[in-house]
Structure formats: C-alpha cells, structure tokens
Amino acid sequence: VPALTPRFLRPRSLKEALDLLSRSEDCRVLAGGTDLMVMLHAGVVRPKVVLDVWSLPELKGIRTDDGFLEVGAAEPYAGIIGSPQVERHCPALVEAARTIGAVQIQSRGTLGGNLANASPAGDTLPVMLAADAEVVTDRRRIPVAEFFTGYRKTALSPGELIVAVRFPVGRQLLFRKVGTRAAQAISKVVLAVCREPARIAVGSVAEVPLRAKRAEAVLEKGGKTGEVVEVVKDEIRPIDDVRSTAEYRRAVTANVLRRLLTGPTRA
Ligand SMILES: Cc1cc2nc3c(=O)[nH]c(=O)nc-3n(C[C@H](O)[C@H](O)[C@H](O)COP(=O)(O)OP(=O)(O)OC[C@H]3O[C@@H](n4cnc5c(N)ncnc54)[C@H](O)[C@@H]3O)c2cc1C
Q1: What is the pTM of this model?
Q2: What is the pLDDT of residues 190-203, one digit of tens each?
Q3: Is the shortest distance between the CB of 120 and ligand 1 below 6 Å?
Q4: Residue 109: which of 47, 184, 32, 38 has the closest Cα?
Q5: Does 76 contact ligand 1 (Cβ within 6 A)?
Q6: Is the CB of 79 under 6 A from ligand 1?
Q7: How do strand 7-9 and strand 27-30 relate by DSSP bridges?
C-alpha cells in the first residue's frame, strides 16, 4: 500500500535543501503551501517527500542590486506589499500582490510558488513578463519569457529550485486584474503593460500567461491604440470555462488594454 502521508523535510540552508532535493526520489517543494496543500488534500499529487523551503534565509528578502530589484522566491506577498523598494521600483508588482487571495493567502503565497505552479491565471506572471524579469534558480537564470512551456508546464528541470526573481528597474508598468470580486477571485483576465519598451502580457486568456508579441511590435512602431487592440484580440486564445466565456474574455481584454494604453501612466 503506498504511503499517503509524505515524509516532511525542513532543511535549514539552501545547501542542505539542494542536497536533500538531489537525494530524494519523488519530492515536491513546499513554500507557502497555498497551492500545494490544496493539491495534496485533493490527492492530485502524492509525493513521497515534501521539502519545506519556506524558512530558508537564502529564499527570503527583497534587495536592489546593479539595476535590478531582486525578490526572494519564498518572500510572501505580504513582504512585497510592505516593501518600499518594490513600491519604488516595481509598483505594479505591489498592485498584483494586493489582488491575490486575501490577507491569509498574501501572508503565505510566494512568487516562487506562483511561477512554479504556472497557472495561466497566476496574477504576478504578466507583471514578470512585461518587466522582462529573470527567474534565478540554483543553477541558472531563465528569462520569464522562456519559463512557461505549456499548460502548467515550466522550463524547470527536475529538482531545480527557484531562488529569486530579478526585475530590471526603471520600467513603467500598468497592471489590471478583472475578477468576480476585489478579493478571493481568480482572474478572468489579468494584464500588465509597458509602453516603452512595448510589452503586453495577458493572463487567463490562453494555456500559458501570454506575451502578445505581434501587438507589441505594432505598439513599438507607434501604431494606433485601436490597431494594437485588434492584434491582441487575434493573438489571445481564450476558452469558455466556469469563470467566463471566451467572448467575454476577448472583449474585456480589449477594453482593459485600450484603457491602459490611453489612460495616464502612474506617477
Ligand atoms: C484561497 C486561495 C486564493 C488564491 N488566490 C490567488 C489569486 O488571487 N491569484 C493568484 O495568482 N493565485 C492565487 N492563489 C494561488 C496561490 O496562492 C499562488 O499561486 C501562490 O503564489 C503560490 O505560492 P506558494 O508559496 O503558496 O506555493 P506552494 O503551494 O508552496 O507551491 C506551489 C507549487 O510551486 C512549487 N514551488 C514552490 N516554491 C518553489 C521554488 N522556490 N522552487 C521550485 N518550485 C517551487 C511547489 O512544488 C508547487 O508545485 C490562491 C490560492 C488559494 C488557496
């Protein structure tokens, strides 16, 4: 009979965590647990080992370094919301963090978890895409643009741990999430936009968080807002599901994008 309760390991350092990760067969990393605990309870995943990285000092903290804002993979949203550095260098990330779940989820949920879980509706993911952020792992740096490889699939190799996310500073990003309510709502559509360089990132409208690259090219060349919006409508691949219809998602993406592109930039 397979064991239903996984072995629980809590390393004290990154080195110990990587060592355990490389030696443990069928191991799942746990950060805040806000996605993983749901999956464990539902029996969707049944790992033999759970490796708790929540308290690792190397995965915590927020710092600026050499033109980048670096956020530890296990830093919770509450830390991001309260960080003057994030507010100064990437306020859109604070906005996104404020829309996630409610205070309980914000106290435990992390960027590393949002990335690795790779839901098309992950709210921080369009911000990372529009910022050209990099995912720092224990072995390499992966541009976020190359991170999502399919529905809930990522470029991470087995046993690879996300350590931090690096955001280039100095970008003016605009963010907007549309859900059923202000809190505890999964996105129907979520957008992050940058005018210069032109970046249009949209979540919940395809099997992966998407960059609308053809529309970005139109925006970059100074194309009219209406033109950019029409191209985005063509690039997204929304589906009908319990939260919305594809038609609704297409219309809302167009309306929100139009407003973001014609409204004022954030001061
Ligand atoms: C009630 C509720 C409301 C929610 N609302 C929102 C919302 O509004 N918006 C939103 O985007 N999400 C929402 N979520 C989903 C979840 O909170 C986020 O995706 C969160 O960022 C996950 O982070 P975590 O640290 O809890 O991840 P965990 O649950 O610990 O892990 C999630 C996945 O990532 C892997 N992982 C975690 N950390 C690492 C790492 N450092 N390296 C490699 N792999 C790692 C785990 O193995 C697991 O597969 C909600 C969840 C709940 C239960």
Answers
A1: 0.96
A2: 999 999 999 999 99
A3: no
A4: 32
A5: no
A6: no
A7: unpaired
